[in-house]
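Most newcomers find our protein records easier to grasp once they have seen one. To make this concrete, we reproduce a full record directly below:

…
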Amino acid sequence: MATLDISFKPERAHLRKPKRGVIAERVVPQSVAGRYRRLKWIALACCLAIYYVLPFIRWSRGPGQPDQAVLLDFERGRLYFFFVEIWPQEVYYLTGLLILATLILIWLNAVAGRVWCGYFCPQTVWTDLFLLVERLVEGDRRERLKKHGAPLTPRRILEIGLKHAIWLLIAMLTGGAFVLYFTDAPALLVDLATGRASMLAYAWVGILTCTTYTLAGFAREQVCTWMCPWPRLQGAIWDPEALTVNYRDHRGEPRASAKKALELRAKGEPAGDCVDCMQCVNVCPIGIDIREGPNFACINCGLCVDACDATMEKLGRPRGLIDYVAWSNIERERQKEPARNRVIRPKTIGLGLSVVALVGVMGISLSMRSDAKVTVIHDRNPVAVRLSDGRTRNGYAVRLYNKADRERSFILVVTGLQSASVEVVGEDGLVSVASDTTRELRVLVTAPAGDRQPIAFTATDVASGGAVSTQDVFIPVEGGQ
C-alpha cells in the first residue's frame, strides 16, 4: 500500500559556498532528450503560439462590432470568444467554465496524475522557455554548477547580462500579449510601441513582466510545490490506478554500479537494474528523487523516464525502470501478479461523462440564447399601494436587453390579471432600445384588490415579432388596508 509523500525536500545541488547575498541551494536541472521531452517541446510551442497569436485572429461580427476573435471588452462590458458573446449578466457561463476546468483537471488527475502541470501549465511552459535560454547562454547543468560562485570574469558578466536581458524581453512580450486581449490588438500594439498607450496598459505590462520574470526565472519549482494549490489536493485525490511516473523498485533494488552488479550476479547475489547514476534526479525540474516513492511535488513531466531509459539502453537493460505506470500495477508486479490496465474504470468514466454533460448543457444553453431579454424586479418598499378608488398598485423595475447590432422597438405587455391597467412611465406604447445596450423602465400595474397572483411581462419585437418574457407576482395590500 502506497502513501503519498508530503514531506517534500528536494535533492539540492551541493554548490560551492557562495559569496554574500547568493542563494546556496537551488535546483539546476540537466537537459535530456527523449519522447517525453519532445512532447513537452511540442506542448510548449503550441501553448506559446496560442497565447501570442490568438489576439490577432479576426472574426467578423457585423458593422460597429469588434472584429477581434477573443476579446474581453470592459468598455462594452462584453466577453467575445469567436461566435460566442457573453454579457455581464451572463456571468454564470464563466462560472460554468470554471467548473468545467475543475472537472477536467480532476479527470486528468484520475487518468494520468499531474500531467497538466507537467505539460500545459503556464508556469511549466515559461519555466521551460527560461531554462532553454539559460542553457543556450550559460551551458548545461555541469557548466552552470561550475560557474556558480566562481570569480566573475568579463565573459561571465556578459553571459549573466545576456541571459537576464533575454528573460526580461520574454517577460515583457508576455505582459504585452496579455493586455492585447482587452482591446483591439493591432491598434494597442502600435500605441504601446509609440508611447501613446494609456498608463493603465503600461502598468499591466509592467506587472506581468515582473511576475513572469520572477516566477519563471527564480521561483520555478517553488511555485509548483508551495505556491500552487493543486499539489495540496494531491493527498486527497491521488489515485493509485492513474498512469503516473513511478519507479519499479522491485526491479531496480538493490542499487549497484554496472560493474558491481555483474560481480554480484556472478556470485548469485541480488543486484537491481538501477546503477544509482542520479540522472533521474538531475533532470527533474522540481529536484525530487522519484525512487523514494510517490511524491506530491512530482509534476508528471516524464523527463526522468527519458533519462532512465537512455541509461538502460546504454547498459543493454530493458527500458521502463522509471515509467508511466499505475502504482497499483507496481504493487501487482511486486507480488508477481499480472498488471491490469484500469485507465477506463467507473471513476474516469463518471468524470468523463460529467465533463461531456456540462459541455452539452452549456452548448445547448448558448445555442438557444435569444438576442433579447427582459428582467423584472418588484418594488420592495412599499410592495403595494392602495389607491383612493380602492384598487391596488404595484411598481416594477423592468430592464430590456437588446443584444442585436441594430436599434429595436418593443411592445411591453403584462398578462395574468383581469381588469388591470399598465403604465410604462415616460413611454407612449413603443419602447426603443439602442443596439447592444440595455434600458431600464419604470412600470406601474394597477388592478382591483384581490389575492396574490402570478403575472407575466412580455416584450415583443415590433419588426421581427419575436417575444421574450419573464414571471413575477402582483401583491395585494397587507391587512386589507
